[in-house]
Amino acid sequence: MAPRLGFKVLLIAYWLRPRSSAPLKAARSVVPSSSRDQEVQAYLDDEELPGKANAFNDVFICDCHEPTTTQWRSLTSGAGPAPPPRARHTAVAIDDKRLLIFGGIDMKRRYNDTWVLNTKTGAWVEIVVHGETPPARAHHTITRVGDCLYIFGG
Q1: In the chain, at which end, N or C, are there fewer CB atoms within 10 A of the end residue's CB?
Q2: Are residues 105 and 88 in contact, defined by beta-carbon separation less than 8 angstroms?
Q3: Burial status of residue 21 (CB atoms within 10 A of its CB: 0-12, 13-18, 19 or more)
Q4: What is residue 8's predicted lDDT score, i.e. its pLDDT?
Q5: Which of 26, 34, 94 has its CA nearest to residue 61?
Q6: How far apart are CA 91 and CA 94, in angstroms?
Q7: Do 76 and 62 contact (CB within 8 A), yes or no?
Q8: What's the rounded mean pLDDT across residues 1-15?
Q9: Separation in Å, CA 14 to CA 4, 18, 29, 69, 76
């Protein structure tokens, strides 16, 4: 018999549409990365791919402190290069000021690179991974459990 896992589900009674102080260039999918201190960060999939999903490398933040005044704003990039535009990647908060992205695709290739964004400064750093690196992939998940990140699928 499988062990029973104790989960509680929190149901939200209504949806709010956040206002945006920085207009989005195109419709896009969002890769939610964290929900800390009532602030949602999203690494958004700036380049249109004809007949394909768009690939982006811009970052927007939704400040959720007060539900009635919630709005999106663009995070200005800090020092260093940003990752190449991509779609169908994963993102996860690794602490209260760092966002990690892995993988994804653009029109030419799949990625297996790892980037970390400092959400306070807007600076990106590409992480050099030692040892075995997961194969390039998209449409996968990444989950943080304690100090470890788990990638599944793709």
Answers
A1: N
A2: yes
A3: exposed
A4: 44
A5: 34
A6: 9
A7: no
A8: 48
A9: 30, 13, 21, 15, 31
Amino acid of residue 108: K
pLDDT value for 142: 93
Whole-angstrom Cα distance, residue 106 to residue 69? Answer: 35
Is-contact 98 118, C-beta < 8 A?
Answer: yes
pLDDT band of residue 58 (cuts 50, 70, 90) is confident
**Global confidence as pTM:** 0.68
Q: How far is the C-alpha of 130 from the C-alpha of 124, rounded, in Å? A: 19
Nearest to 82 by CA among 53, 110, 56: 56
Q: What is the SS3 assignment for 103?
A: strand
DSSP H helical ranges for 26-125: none
- Residue with token string 């943080």: 144
Q: What are the two backbone dihedrals, phi and then psi, of residue 43, each rounded to the nearest 5 degrees?
A: -90, 115
| Residue written as token pair 């890769």 | 31
Q: Nearest to residue 120, comparing CAs of 84, 93, 147?
A: 93
User: 68: helix, coil or strand?
Assistant: helix
Average pLDDT over residues 111-116: 95
